[in-house]
Amino acid sequence: MGESLEQREQDLTFQVIETQLKEGLFHLSNEEFAQVVIAYEPVWAIGTGKTATSAQAQEVHAFIREQIARHYDAQAALDTTLLYGGSANPSNARELFSQADVDGGLIGGASLKSRDFTDIVKSF
Ligand SMILES: O=C[C@H](O)COP(=O)(O)O
């Protein structure tokens, strides 16, 4: 899930994420939802070289977890794996993936270079 650049600039990020969660996932039963892994990928960051700041990633991930707790329960929120994707690279990986609510990453372009991918893995 994730917002477009236009949506972010219009301050609609949280609204977009909330709608995506409600329409895309929150019809699932507790048992079904327990199988879900969520990736936050701001559209403007995918393959562009523009990465969300660690603060931007963290605040959206925290929001997603809050929404899960509200719709399911606190344990479901804690148990759900939340990944960040969007121009993650060896230079920004450590800060991005050390955020409290960022559990891992979806690595696109950087995974095509084995050295970069290895460096990202080592940053966890
Ligand atoms: O699956 C990969 C994600 O869409 C992120 O791709 P990226 O790291 O090339 O921006």
From TrEMBL:
The GO terms describing molecular function are: triose-phosphate isomerase activity
Gene3D superfamilies to which the protein is assigned, alphabetical: Aldolase class I
Q: By its UniProt entry, which Pfam families does this protein fall under?
A: TIM
Keywords in alphabetical order, please: Cytoplasm, Gluconeogenesis, Glycolysis, Isomerase
SUPFAM superfamilies in alphabetical order: Triosephosphate isomerase (TIM)
PROSITE patterns assigned to the protein according to its UniProt record, in alphabetical order: TIM_1, TIM_2
Q: Does the keyword Cytoplasm apply?
A: yes
Which InterPro entries does its entry note? Answer: Aldolase_TIM, TIM_sf, Triosephosphate_isomerase, Triosephosphate_isomerase_AS
Q: How does it assemble?
A: Homodimer.
Q: Which family is this sequence assigned to?
A: Belongs to the triosephosphate isomerase family.
Q: What is this protein called?
A: Triosephosphate isomerase
Species of provenance? Adhaeribacter pallidiroseus
